[in-house]
Amino acid sequence: MSKKTEIAAQLVKTGRDVFGLEDEERVAGYADEVAEMMQTLSSASIEKTQEPFPPLFDASREEK
């Protein structure tokens, strides 16, 4: 089983168990797309200036 398939299966299980989604065929289709997006994003290199969210705190400005 590929990593993408494992991720998609876990998303389907979560959709069913946690959110009560019943249309398994539709959920499986979306889960497959989300798994692919997650893999693409996890392998992308992002420059610090491209980060979508600022850091929670700036360690360089931490009080001494």
Q: Mean pLDDT, rounded to whole units?
A: 84
Query: How many strand elements?
Result: 0
H-E order: HH
Q: What profile does the largest beta sheet have?
A: none
| Oligomeric state, counting identical vs distinct chains | single chain
- Cα distance, first to last residue? 51 Å
Give the uncertain stretches in residue-range form. none
Question: Beta-sheet strand percentage?
Answer: under 5%
Return Rg in Å. 18 Å
List the helices and strands and how they pair.
Elements: H1 3-17, H2 24-43
Question: Can you give keywords for this protein?
Answer:
64 residues, mainly alpha, elongated
Commentary on this structure:
Helix 1 packs across helix 2 (24-43). The protein has two helices and no strands. By secondary structure, it is an all-alpha fold.
Short characterization:
With 64 residues, this protein is an all-alpha fold.
